[in-house]
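Chapter summary example: a protein plus glutamine.
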Amino acid sequence: MSDLNRLTIAGARDALRKGETTSVALTEACLSAIEGAKALNAFVHDTPELALEQARAADAKRGADAPALSGIPLGIKDLFCTKGVPSQAGSAILNGFKPEYESTVTQNLFDQGAVMLGKLNMDEFAMGSSNETSIYGNAVNPWRRGDDNTALTPGGSSGGSASAVAADLCLGATGTDTGGSIRQPAAFTGITGIKPTYGRCSRWGIIAFASSLDQAGPMTKDVRDAAIMLQAMCSHDPKDSTSTTTPVPDFEAALTGDIRGKTIGIPKEYTLDGMSDEIDALWTRGKEMLRDAGAKIVDISLPHTKYALPAYYVIAPAEASSNLARYDGVRYGHRAKLAHGDGITEMYEKTRAEGFGAEVQRRVMIGTYVLSAGFYDAYYNRARRVRTLIKKDFEDVFAQGVDAILTPATPSAAFGLGEMAAADPVQMYLNDVFTVTVNLAGLPGVAVPAGLDRQGLPLGLQLIGRPWEEDALLNTAYALETAAGFVAKPAKWW
Ligand code: GLN
């Protein structure tokens, strides 16, 4: 078999089970694809020896009943702590940090026999929408606008994961999503990404950004692979007090493609002023595809949507400022060189000033401001109240019988690197307009590639599901994927 790195997880699993290939062959194909794709800057720490060792172990245990992920080469976002392997969250402050432990999600993947190729680029501490806040420099989108050579963002913060999957450097990758970081980069690179219900994947060992919003999820070449990989990532974990005991359904078995009789809500508040006609047209096509598949399309209202971005950009920085207080030069990573006479305060100040990039510093400052005694009620408590109202908007429409909600995944296709960074930071924050509501409400959301824009760039649609019903959500996504028939791949230039 040639081009093994281009296989889907399901395709590779079936080939492995039939003895048509080996995990070592798959892993070698991915390692050589990674070697040839340095221009994408997707992988930031390669672990080829570990990968081949895991692949050999998977091959030694091969059998018809091997777990689905046995021998499957994956990339892991740098936000996951991986034992003995650099885990820096894209930050200089964690320079040299090699965890003594494994995150629950990566341990679950390894228990299923998965192979880790290395760690993937990301925005620093997962703060960003373009991968440009990474200490390693940005990852690059394998897609380009027609024959224009402008380098485009793969999105963020899971930009390395998106770029690696879209360019077939790995069969699938882990991502995390606090305000859209799985779904937005998936949409920008023509792949599938699901953020499950808050609590579905353990957060233990995932470097924290905003703990009440952070969730891990898979980024894959199609919906079936998302179902397979999510299955392996989820588990109840006593080490994370917000991890659910709700049983994990068989996600792949749910993919029948039959959505007849399902009710799909179209929220009127997601039509933005000045929204591009291409995004609008894609959304309309999405509605038609689901209707043709037998679903009932209804107009719905989520009245508090317009407050979601402001509430998110209060709550997420508030939690981040608290979570990032631990990086003080004492316990982890970088410590600034001190001058004679410097005390502990100078050590904290210098270490944090050197170790954190501009966006992280901005978030820490916003966070400490909104949590400060005089402003706590005006900002933080008000944002928390808004969050409750946003959650209630969704509960109300689900109570009216809506099974899933269809929206665009992003307000635009991938933009040029540097194009947005030059603008006001709020321009960058606007990227999350369709995704943050889902995190604030703790719901599952999936981005599915649904078409190309005039310049040949992928565009995604988002489906939002009921809590703990990722099985039904994935099935609706599968029906949409089947109808959209998106098969385009980026032309190889790297
Ligand atoms: N772009 C958003 C932010 O910068 C979301 C990031 C994320 O989901 N990790 O906060």
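Key point: The CA atoms of residues 180 and 228 lie 21 Å apart.
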